[in-house]
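Model it.
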Amino acid sequence: MRQLYHALLATGLAVSAIAVPAVTSAKTDPAVVKALTDTRRSEANRARDVYRHPAETLAFFDVHPGQTVAEFYPGGGWYTEVLAPMLKDKGHYVAIPPATEKSVAAFAKFVEGKQTWLGTPQVAPFSATAASTIAPGSVDRLLTFRNVHNLIMAGDATVAKAFGDFHAALKPGGILGVVDHRLPEDKDSALEKSSGYIKKSTVIRYAEAAGFKYVGESPVNANPKDTHDWPEGVWTLPPTYKLGDVDRAKYAAVGESDRFTLKFVKP
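Modeled.
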Protein backbone atom coordinates (compact mmCIF):
# COMPACT_ATOMS: atom_id res chain seq x y z
CA MET A 1 0.00 0.00 0.00
CA ARG A 2 1.18 3.50 -0.68
CA GLN A 3 2.21 5.95 1.98
CA LEU A 4 -0.55 8.53 1.94
CA TYR A 5 0.41 11.08 4.50
CA HIS A 6 4.14 11.81 4.71
CA ALA A 7 4.25 14.04 1.66
CA LEU A 8 2.09 16.70 3.28
CA LEU A 9 4.43 17.00 6.24
CA ALA A 10 7.39 17.23 3.90
CA THR A 11 6.00 20.34 2.28
CA GLY A 12 6.57 22.37 5.40
CA LEU A 13 3.12 23.93 5.11
CA ALA A 14 1.34 24.64 8.34
CA VAL A 15 -1.84 22.62 8.54
CA SER A 16 -3.60 25.58 10.11
CA ALA A 17 -3.05 27.50 6.87
CA ILE A 18 -5.03 24.96 4.85
CA ALA A 19 -8.66 25.82 4.29
CA VAL A 20 -10.62 22.82 5.52
CA PRO A 21 -14.33 22.86 4.64
CA ALA A 22 -17.04 22.45 7.20
CA VAL A 23 -17.94 18.84 7.87
CA THR A 24 -21.62 19.47 8.38
CA SER A 25 -24.40 19.30 5.82
CA ALA A 26 -28.09 18.57 5.82
CA LYS A 27 -27.46 14.86 5.25
CA THR A 28 -24.40 14.42 7.47
CA ASP A 29 -24.88 12.08 10.39
CA PRO A 30 -23.81 13.71 13.70
CA ALA A 31 -21.72 10.62 14.42
CA VAL A 32 -19.67 11.32 11.28
CA VAL A 33 -19.12 14.92 12.38
CA LYS A 34 -17.99 13.71 15.80
CA ALA A 35 -15.53 11.26 14.25
CA LEU A 36 -14.13 13.84 11.83
CA THR A 37 -13.59 16.47 14.52
CA ASP A 38 -11.97 14.06 16.99
CA THR A 39 -8.59 15.49 17.96
CA ARG A 40 -7.06 12.02 17.96
CA ARG A 41 -7.00 12.19 14.18
CA SER A 42 -3.58 13.41 13.09
CA GLU A 43 -3.19 16.89 11.65
CA ALA A 44 -1.88 15.34 8.43
CA ASN A 45 -5.02 13.24 8.07
CA ARG A 46 -7.36 16.11 8.92
CA ALA A 47 -5.65 18.24 6.26
CA ARG A 48 -6.75 15.72 3.61
CA ASP A 49 -10.45 16.36 4.37
CA VAL A 50 -10.43 19.32 1.99
CA TYR A 51 -9.68 16.92 -0.87
CA ARG A 52 -11.52 13.78 0.24
CA HIS A 53 -14.81 15.26 1.47
CA PRO A 54 -15.49 12.42 3.90
CA ALA A 55 -18.72 13.82 5.36
CA GLU A 56 -20.33 14.29 1.96
CA THR A 57 -18.94 11.00 0.65
CA LEU A 58 -20.29 8.95 3.56
CA ALA A 59 -23.64 10.75 3.31
CA PHE A 60 -23.85 9.75 -0.37
CA PHE A 61 -23.16 6.14 0.60
CA ASP A 62 -25.79 6.40 3.37
CA VAL A 63 -23.43 5.32 6.15
CA HIS A 64 -24.75 5.51 9.72
CA PRO A 65 -24.14 4.00 13.16
CA GLY A 66 -25.85 0.68 13.69
CA GLN A 67 -24.66 -0.69 10.36
CA THR A 68 -22.00 -3.26 9.57
CA VAL A 69 -19.55 -1.40 7.34
CA ALA A 70 -16.65 -3.13 5.62
CA GLU A 71 -13.71 -1.20 4.17
CA PHE A 72 -11.71 -2.87 1.43
CA TYR A 73 -7.96 -2.17 1.64
CA PRO A 74 -7.90 0.32 4.53
CA GLY A 75 -4.22 1.05 3.86
CA GLY A 76 -2.83 3.59 6.28
CA GLY A 77 -6.15 3.86 8.09
CA TRP A 78 -7.34 7.24 6.88
CA TYR A 79 -11.01 6.22 6.69
CA THR A 80 -10.59 3.71 9.54
CA GLU A 81 -10.16 6.70 11.86
CA VAL A 82 -13.59 7.93 10.77
CA LEU A 83 -15.57 4.72 10.35
CA ALA A 84 -14.36 2.63 13.30
CA PRO A 85 -15.12 5.24 16.01
CA MET A 86 -18.61 5.97 14.71
CA LEU A 87 -19.40 2.24 14.70
CA LYS A 88 -17.59 1.27 17.92
CA ASP A 89 -20.59 1.46 20.25
CA LYS A 90 -23.36 0.97 17.72
CA GLY A 91 -22.52 -1.04 14.65
CA HIS A 92 -19.58 -3.02 13.37
CA TYR A 93 -16.47 -2.13 11.36
CA VAL A 94 -14.76 -4.76 9.20
CA ALA A 95 -11.31 -4.16 7.70
CA ILE A 96 -10.41 -6.06 4.53
CA PRO A 97 -6.64 -5.70 4.02
CA PRO A 98 -4.74 -7.70 1.41
CA ALA A 99 -4.12 -11.26 2.57
CA THR A 100 -0.39 -10.79 3.01
CA GLU A 101 1.50 -11.07 6.26
CA LYS A 102 2.85 -7.54 5.86
CA SER A 103 -0.56 -5.91 5.25
CA VAL A 104 -2.33 -7.78 8.04
CA ALA A 105 0.48 -6.97 10.46
CA ALA A 106 0.45 -3.30 9.42
CA PHE A 107 -3.26 -2.99 10.15
CA ALA A 108 -2.86 -4.75 13.49
CA LYS A 109 -0.09 -2.31 14.41
CA PHE A 110 -2.25 0.64 13.34
CA VAL A 111 -5.10 -0.26 15.70
CA GLU A 112 -2.86 -1.50 18.53
CA GLY A 113 -3.50 0.35 21.78
CA LYS A 114 -6.38 2.35 20.27
CA GLN A 115 -9.32 0.23 21.44
CA THR A 116 -10.92 3.07 23.39
CA TRP A 117 -10.97 5.10 20.18
CA LEU A 118 -11.31 2.58 17.34
CA GLY A 119 -12.79 -0.39 19.16
CA THR A 120 -11.71 -3.85 17.99
CA PRO A 121 -12.28 -4.08 14.24
CA GLN A 122 -12.93 -7.42 12.61
CA VAL A 123 -10.18 -8.25 10.11
CA ALA A 124 -11.12 -10.31 7.06
CA PRO A 125 -8.17 -10.29 4.61
CA PHE A 126 -8.85 -10.43 0.88
CA SER A 127 -7.30 -13.23 -1.14
CA ALA A 128 -7.49 -13.42 -4.92
CA THR A 129 -7.60 -17.22 -4.66
CA ALA A 130 -9.08 -18.21 -1.28
CA ALA A 131 -12.70 -17.90 -0.21
CA SER A 132 -13.81 -14.78 1.64
CA THR A 133 -14.03 -15.06 5.43
CA ILE A 134 -16.89 -12.54 5.68
CA ALA A 135 -20.21 -14.21 6.38
CA PRO A 136 -22.40 -14.03 3.26
CA GLY A 137 -25.11 -11.38 3.45
CA SER A 138 -23.78 -9.85 6.67
CA VAL A 139 -22.64 -6.39 5.54
CA ASP A 140 -24.76 -3.24 5.08
CA ARG A 141 -22.13 -1.10 3.36
CA LEU A 142 -18.91 -2.09 1.63
CA LEU A 143 -16.64 0.82 0.77
CA THR A 144 -13.39 1.11 -1.11
CA PHE A 145 -11.43 4.32 -1.51
CA ARG A 146 -8.85 4.58 -4.30
CA ASN A 147 -8.18 0.84 -4.52
CA VAL A 148 -9.91 -0.55 -7.61
CA HIS A 149 -7.04 0.72 -9.75
CA ASN A 150 -4.73 -1.56 -7.75
CA LEU A 151 -7.01 -4.51 -8.48
CA ILE A 152 -7.06 -3.67 -12.18
CA MET A 153 -3.28 -3.56 -12.30
CA ALA A 154 -3.30 -7.02 -10.67
CA GLY A 155 -5.41 -8.46 -13.50
CA ASP A 156 -8.98 -9.21 -14.52
CA ALA A 157 -9.28 -12.34 -12.39
CA THR A 158 -8.37 -10.42 -9.25
CA VAL A 159 -10.89 -7.66 -9.98
CA ALA A 160 -13.64 -10.18 -10.68
CA LYS A 161 -12.86 -12.09 -7.47
CA ALA A 162 -12.96 -8.89 -5.41
CA PHE A 163 -16.29 -7.70 -6.81
CA GLY A 164 -17.70 -11.19 -6.37
CA ASP A 165 -16.64 -11.13 -2.72
CA PHE A 166 -18.21 -7.67 -2.31
CA HIS A 167 -21.51 -8.92 -3.69
CA ALA A 168 -21.51 -12.05 -1.53
CA ALA A 169 -20.73 -10.10 1.66
CA LEU A 170 -23.49 -7.51 1.26
CA LYS A 171 -27.07 -7.97 2.37
CA PRO A 172 -29.80 -7.59 -0.26
CA GLY A 173 -30.27 -3.84 -0.57
CA GLY A 174 -26.73 -3.26 0.69
CA ILE A 175 -24.59 -0.55 -0.90
CA LEU A 176 -21.18 -0.79 -2.53
CA GLY A 177 -19.40 2.57 -2.57
CA VAL A 178 -16.40 3.13 -4.84
CA VAL A 179 -14.10 6.16 -4.99
CA ASP A 180 -11.20 6.11 -7.43
CA HIS A 181 -9.03 8.20 -9.72
CA ARG A 182 -10.95 9.08 -12.89
CA LEU A 183 -9.57 8.32 -16.35
CA PRO A 184 -11.63 10.21 -18.94
CA GLU A 185 -13.63 7.89 -21.17
CA ASP A 186 -11.86 9.13 -24.31
CA LYS A 187 -8.41 8.14 -23.01
CA ASP A 188 -6.61 4.93 -23.94
CA SER A 189 -7.79 2.14 -21.63
CA ALA A 190 -4.22 0.81 -21.53
CA LEU A 191 -3.48 3.65 -19.10
CA GLU A 192 -5.55 1.83 -16.50
CA LYS A 193 -2.68 -0.62 -16.11
CA SER A 194 -0.03 1.99 -15.39
CA SER A 195 -1.33 5.46 -14.49
CA GLY A 196 -3.49 4.80 -11.42
CA TYR A 197 -6.44 6.35 -13.27
CA ILE A 198 -9.36 4.13 -14.33
CA LYS A 199 -12.56 4.68 -16.25
CA LYS A 200 -15.94 4.93 -14.60
CA SER A 201 -17.30 2.59 -17.26
CA THR A 202 -14.72 -0.04 -16.29
CA VAL A 203 -15.84 -0.04 -12.66
CA ILE A 204 -19.50 -0.23 -13.70
CA ARG A 205 -18.71 -3.15 -15.99
CA TYR A 206 -17.02 -5.16 -13.23
CA ALA A 207 -19.71 -4.30 -10.69
CA GLU A 208 -22.59 -5.22 -12.98
CA ALA A 209 -20.87 -8.46 -13.96
CA ALA A 210 -20.81 -9.35 -10.25
CA GLY A 211 -24.54 -8.72 -9.94
CA PHE A 212 -24.68 -5.11 -8.74
CA LYS A 213 -27.04 -2.44 -10.01
CA TYR A 214 -25.51 0.97 -10.68
CA VAL A 215 -27.33 3.67 -8.69
CA GLY A 216 -25.47 6.85 -9.57
CA GLU A 217 -22.51 9.17 -9.08
CA SER A 218 -21.75 12.08 -6.81
CA PRO A 219 -19.46 14.89 -8.07
CA VAL A 220 -18.18 15.57 -4.56
CA ASN A 221 -14.63 14.27 -5.20
CA ALA A 222 -14.20 15.66 -8.71
CA ASN A 223 -11.23 17.95 -9.36
CA PRO A 224 -11.33 19.91 -12.66
CA LYS A 225 -7.71 20.99 -12.17
CA ASP A 226 -6.52 17.44 -12.76
CA THR A 227 -5.58 16.90 -16.44
CA HIS A 228 -4.99 13.15 -15.92
CA ASP A 229 -1.72 13.16 -17.90
CA TRP A 230 1.08 13.55 -15.36
CA PRO A 231 4.58 12.08 -15.90
CA GLU A 232 4.25 9.58 -13.04
CA GLY A 233 0.52 9.09 -13.32
CA VAL A 234 -1.71 9.89 -10.37
CA TRP A 235 1.25 9.50 -8.00
CA THR A 236 2.72 12.72 -9.39
CA LEU A 237 0.08 14.61 -7.41
CA PRO A 238 -0.26 15.00 -3.64
CA PRO A 239 -0.10 13.31 -1.30
CA THR A 240 2.49 11.04 -2.97
CA TYR A 241 4.56 13.62 -4.92
CA LYS A 242 6.52 10.89 -6.71
CA LEU A 243 8.73 13.48 -8.45
CA GLY A 244 9.84 14.84 -5.10
CA ASP A 245 10.63 18.54 -5.28
CA VAL A 246 10.36 18.75 -9.09
CA ASP A 247 7.47 21.15 -9.86
CA ARG A 248 6.11 20.47 -6.39
CA ALA A 249 4.31 23.82 -6.12
CA LYS A 250 2.60 23.15 -9.44
CA TYR A 251 1.27 19.79 -8.29
CA ALA A 252 0.31 21.14 -4.88
CA ALA A 253 -1.81 23.75 -6.66
CA VAL A 254 -3.63 20.99 -8.56
CA GLY A 255 -4.39 19.13 -5.34
CA GLU A 256 -5.35 15.50 -5.07
CA SER A 257 -6.66 13.67 -8.11
CA ASP A 258 -9.97 13.98 -9.93
CA ARG A 259 -12.12 11.15 -8.54
CA PHE A 260 -15.44 9.57 -9.30
CA THR A 261 -17.70 8.53 -6.41
CA LEU A 262 -19.98 5.69 -7.47
CA LYS A 263 -22.83 3.94 -5.68
CA PHE A 264 -24.09 0.44 -6.44
CA VAL A 265 -26.76 -1.68 -4.78
CA LYS A 266 -27.10 -5.42 -4.38
CA PRO A 267 -30.64 -6.22 -5.58
